[in-house]
């Protein structure tokens, strides 16, 4: 009798290991607007953080096999937690054989981005044509420094402004 109990207890770790079932991954509300691609976002975005998510667990039959679909859901949920708008996938590791173990994890590494707030446009009120001209020149230079204009665009706009000139009283 004792031998049967001991033999039964010895099998518990194997039975528990084999019976591990995957956790179902649900998308959080609001994640449908998150964009996931393998390229940098176009436009004004700032990097929030690098992240790594995985789906799957264990080795071979001891755990459960991860899927791309559930790993993507994990990714979108994590991007949302960080208040991001965009994820650039930088690496993907699919379930694979590693030595004597078939690793069940599907892992995705990504950079999380958030849309950058546009800089407010200053409305200038000037008392004279000379002040208007000077303020426009300063605005152009500021736009060049902020990266809004390229050097060529800046030069072109500067020439136009200089050609218009201003009338002194």
Offer a quick outline of the entry.
This protein is an alpha+beta fold and 169 residues long. Helix content is 37%, strand content 26%.
Outline the structure in words.
There is one protein chain. The protein is an alpha+beta fold. It folds into two domains: 20-115, Translation Initiation Factor IF3; 129-164. Helices cover 37% and strands 26% of the residues. It has four helices and eight strands. It has helices at 2-19, 68-81, 129-145, 151-164, and strands at residues 35-37, 45-55, 57-59, 62-64, 86-93, 96-98, 101-103, 106-115. Strands 1-5-8-2 form a four-stranded mixed sheet. A two-stranded antiparallel ribbon has the order 3-4. Strands 6-7 form a two-stranded antiparallel ribbon. Strand 6 and strand 7 form a beta hairpin. Helix 3 (129-145) packs antiparallel against helix 4 (151-164). The termini are far apart. Residues 11-21 have low confidence and may be disordered.
């Amino acid at each position: 009798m004792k031998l049967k109990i001991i033999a039964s207890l010895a099998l518990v770790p194997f039975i528990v290991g084999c019976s591990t079932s995957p956790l179902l991954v649900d998308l959080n509300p609001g994640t449908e607007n998150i964009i996931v691609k393998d390229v940098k976002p176009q436009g004004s975005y700032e990097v929030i953080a690098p992240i790594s998510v995985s789906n799957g667990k264990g080795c071979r039959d001891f755990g459960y096999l991860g899927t791309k679909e559930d790993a993507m859901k994990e990714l979108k949920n994590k991007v949302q937690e960080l208040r991001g708008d965009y994820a650039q996938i930088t690496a993907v590791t699919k379930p694979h054989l590693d030595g004597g173990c078939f690793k069940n994890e599907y892992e995705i590494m990504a950079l999380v981005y958030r849309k950058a707030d546009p800089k407010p446009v200053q409305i200038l009120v000037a008392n004279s044509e000379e002040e208007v001209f000077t303020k426009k020149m300063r605005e152009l230079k500021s736009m060049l420094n902020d990266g809004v204009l390229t050097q060529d665009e800046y030069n072109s706009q500067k020439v136009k402004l200089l050609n218009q000139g201003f009338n002194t009283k």
